[in-house]
Amino acid sequence: MRDRLKVLYITPLRGGIGHWSRCLIEELDKLADVTLVTFKKKRKEDDKKPFTRVDDPFILEVIDPDRPHYLVEYDNPRSLEKLVDLTLKEKPGVVHFVMWAGPQILWFLKEYTMRMKEFGVPVVYTLHEVVPHIASEKEKKEFLDSYVYASHLVVLTEDAKREVENSGLNIPVTVIPHGNYHAMDKHVVSREKARTVLSEKLGVSIGENVNVVGFFGFIRKYKGLIYLIRAAPMVLERFPDTVFFAAGSVELDEDPLVYEREIKALGLEDRFFLYTRFVEGQVFFESVFKASDVMVYPYVGVSQSGAMITSISMKCPVIISEIGSFIKELREKGVVKTSRPGDPVSIAREINWVLEDKNRAKSLAEHAYRVFERDYGWKKIVEQYLEVYRSVQR
């Protein structure tokens, strides 16, 4: 029997990547000795309310608040030295660094990994994006340059692997897909209760027979919400008793008022509602999905989505733009319906397909749930990570 591997695991422990890490850590703890490191600050905006400990209820299901975890500050050279000292003290077999999209982390990432290479400690990166979709050409080069000392790169899709291979980086790369989020469903609301909750949050009455079309997640230009708004009139022609909503923070959007202007221009003020704040609390979170007949992700620039996977784990039918091989694979498996990127007519057609026969759509959602349970379980994903960890030690 192999000795348990020691892993120093560096990750944000909040937000979408925090939820992803929580699921991986739950299974990784069973097979390895894991030391956690997370970040005190993530964005400049957080200076007013710095993160000092794990406080997300979903994450705390797995990570006891009293479990030792170390805080690093990516903008503090002394913190870098402390992390180097901690790593040498812990003597891990591998460091797993989960990369997020902030360019402010790049100097820390590169310097730390360079030091680890000098000491013979292998570092594996997980790149949820090889480079951020919104990065400039200069920033893209900076991201790629910060990866040069990594021992191995893990990406989530075959498209991302090709992007790495075409970038000129001479680093081994492995595809390990995003796992399911079935653990997020705590079954705290029924459909009826969910509609009551959503009605209160949006300030509109959503009756039992009203069709509900939703969008969930951070709102940025590349998420394509504008195209869902433009699709709404075509859906309303066929199904006039339909309500649309988008729920998610708009604070980082390039033009956060463009959606309100478009809704007003199309006369949709009583049909399309925006909840542009963080969706807080399990009851409201579940209600977003369980009140909806379909969740729509009209992206124009990303090829995988934690929000989409959350919808599937809540057994809500999904329509998503067909961008990249992973979404195409899911369509071929009968997991999602797909629309053309940036095409309101295509989006409206797929929404109408769902609303025409909700039993058919329900079967699609239940099939999607089973596929993600079978093919994208975290035990299987952790086993793939362990293979990567062992490969960099050989």
List the topology elements.
Elements (H helix, E strand, L loop, with lengths): L4 E6 L4 H14 L3 E8 L17 H4 L8 E4 L4 H14 L3 E6 L6 H14 L3 E5 L9 H9 L6 E4 L2 H8 L7 E3 L15 H12 L8 E6 L8 H14 L3 E6 L10 H8 L6 E4 L6 H9 L3 E4 L8 H8 L4 E4 L2 H9 L4 E3 L4 H13 L1 H18 L2 H14 L3
Parallel strand pairs: 1-2, 1-4, 2-3, 4-5, 5-6, 6-7, 8-9, 8-11, 9-10, 11-12, 12-13
List keywords for this structure.
43% helix, seven-stranded parallel beta sheet, 13 strands, 394 residues, 15 helices, six-stranded parallel beta sheet, alpha/beta
The SSE order reads: EHEHEHEHEHEHEHEHEHEHEHEHEHHH
Number of strands: 13
Unreliable parts = none
Gyration radius, rounded: 22 Å
Number of helical regions: 15
Strand proportion: 15-25%
Strand adjacency order, main sheet:
3-2-1-4-5-6-7
Overall 3D geometry? elongated
Share of helical residues: 40-55%
Q: Kindly, what is the distance between the CA atoms of the first and last residues, rounded to a whole number of angstroms?
A: 17 Å
Structural class: alpha/beta
The chain-level mean pLDDT equals 92
- Major sheet characteristics: 7 strands, parallel
